[in-house]
Write a structure and sequence with these properties.
Length: 243
């Protein structure tokens, strides 16, 4: 009797392993095709890394040698939030390697805070930005375990501002001028995420860091641009890709 029980348990385990092996691999066939498409929604968090001039603290005088601001105490850039919507195109090279591009429309303002010896002059300058991001990335994927796999990626990105005018503050007094970014610049980026396979689609939560190349500031003669030698943009993006 005991022998028959052991045989029954072994048979059930064997059949169970067979049934588990036959569980369908979901995902709507996204990984079986060499090419596939999708869309994304993202949360954006960004800030400026500020490289100041050696004499950044000194007061600002206009062209008529009139004192406009007092001495600066600090220039900083807190994190600011935004969002992104995008499109996904991927091309499979091997089972574990693919190239992809994710053009996105980014709505994310950036902030620079200025504090002065005269506290009444303290101000924040918001760099209003709507841009198109054009990234190209290499994605390296792990083996698929059931309906899950992890991945890392890295690549380059070009960002182009849209709907902004560089001379929008031309008629304003120096104290009311804006801090501005150049219209187009490049960045490098790296991230990690995972592919989760559902019956008819694949969901990929992803977190990605990007840092701009060079200087993204438009240099002008005003109280907010003059103290700064270089601005770099640092961005953290959390995205959900549907494929």
């Amino acid at each position: 009797m005991i022998k028959h029980r052991y045989l029954l348990i072994i048979a059930l385990l064997f059949c169970g392993s067979k049934l588990l092996a036959q569980v369908p691999k979901w995902g709507g066939g996204a990984d079986q095709a060499d090419r596939s498409f999708g869309f994304s929604f993202g949360y954006v968090n960004s800030y400026f890394k500020i490289d100041k001039m050696p004499d950044w603290r000194k007061p600002y005088f206009d062209n008529d040698n009139v004192k406009v601001t007092d001495s600066l105490n600090s220039i900083g850039s807190p994190s600011s939030q935004g969002f992104a919507v995008g499109f996904l195109y991927r091309y499979r090279i091997t089972e574990h390697l693919e190239v992809r591009t994710t053009p996105s429309l980014i709505f994310a303002d950036r902030i620079a805070n200025y504090t002065y010896t005269d506290k009444s002059l303290n101000t924040s300058k918001t760099v209003q930005s709507t841009s198109v991001d054009l990234p190209l990335s290499i994605k390296i994927k792990s083996d698929r375990i059931g309906n899950f796999r992890g991945y890392i990626l890295g690549g380059l990105k070009y960002s182009q501002a849209i709907g902004t005018k560089s001379n929008a503050d031309a008629s304003l007094a120096p104290i009311d001028k804006h801090l501005k970014n150049i219209r187009g610049f490049g960045s490098y980026e790296a991230g990690l995420g995972c592919d989760i396979y559902f019956e008819f689609f694949k969901l990929s939560p992803e977190i990605k860091l990007s840092n701009s190349f060079g200087d993204v500031m438009l240099h002008e003669d005003n109280p907010y641009s003059t103290p700064i030698n270089k601005l770099s943009l640092h961005t953290l993006m959390f995205s959900l890709y549907f494929e």
